[in-house]
Write a structure and sequence with these properties.
This protein is α/β, with parallel strands linked by helices. The protein has nine helices and twelve strands. α3 packs parallel to α4 and α5 runs parallel beside α6.
Length: 268
């Protein structure tokens, strides 16, 4: 059994992660962490998802339960993830990170900490999205610069960062396949006198509204034909079950930085 700790247990994703951990026969929940000052501290985690008492009370400090867990799942905010990295690295607890919006410095910290512990860090944990990344790699190599590429993502109105981590992953997959540095070719939206489209650029656009779980489309627009690779998420539980699957996998790794492609054995 893999003992799992969850950051932000009362959040939308946190609750789904609790359910996913309880449904997976290879995992058990041994830590549920909420923000300091939450009125739910001390409440049993099972009560959050209406499954009754499971013997795991919410705490407001990761250090209180760090010795009880094998893997920490962190879908929180960049500042919180930064602190959790330090604690987990010190205690030898592996991590599954789904936090988006990390700065360059924070991404570098993830790399540094992966020399001490094993970390799966992905912008999206669904099987379908990661299969799409493989298809994008193939399409990027096949088209090269002969097709204009546009990435379009749509999410619910509550999402606080843009573009999504998945959109970055998809754009990065294409850029890598074409031998490009994404920072050099990315164009985020367009407004005003933009001039003609630059060959090799990758457009990235974000839509926000309603309760869209997560839609992503990458268009390869060539002369005479258009290829679209699209993934539409209809239930957030797919992300939670993927993260728990990654937790079971990463628990067996000594150290290193991995992504969901490694977990699903899609590389190579």
């Amino acid at each position: 059994m893999t003992n799992i700790g969850i950051i932000g247990a009362n959040g939308r994703m946190g609750k789904m992660l609790i359910q996913a951990v309880q449904q997976n026969p290879q995992t058990t929940l041994t830590g549920a962490i909420e923000r300091t000052g939450s009125t739910l501290i001390g409440v049993d985690a099972g009560e959050l998802v209406n499954i009754g008492n499971i013997g795991v009370q919410l705490v407001d400090d990761l250090s209180q339960v760090i010795d009880k867990i094998d893997v920490l799942i962190d879908f929180s905010l960049p500042q919180s993830t930064e602190k959790n990295l330090e604690i987990c690295a010190k205690q030898g607890v592996n991590m599954v990170i789904g936090t988006t919006g990390l700065s360059d410095a924070q991404n570098e910290l993830v790399k540094q900490m992966s020399e001490k512990i094993a970390i799966v860090y992905a912008g999206n944990y669904s099987t379908g999205v990661n299969l799409s990344l493989k298809l994008l790699e193939i399409a990027g190599r096949a088209f090269g610069d002969t097709a204009d590429v546009e990435v379009i993502e749509a999410h619910h109105k509550h999402k606080i960062d843009a573009p999504s981590g998945t959109a970055y992953m998809m754009a990065q997959a294409v850029a890598d396949a074409r031998g490009q540095n994404l920072k050099d070719v990315a164009v985020y939206g367009r407004e005003g006198q933009t001039g003609e489209r630059q060959t090799g650029s990758i457009g990235i656009h974000a839509i926000r509204g309603g309760e869209i779980v997560g839609d992503h489309t990458v268009m390869f627009i060539a002369d005479g034909e258009i290829v679209e690779i699209t993934h539409k998420a209809r239930d957030r539980m797919t992300f939670a079950t993927g993260a728990v699957r990654a937790s079971v996998w990463v628990a067996e790794q000594p150290s290193g930085l991995f992504d969901m492609q490694d977990v699903l054995e899609l590389k190579g």
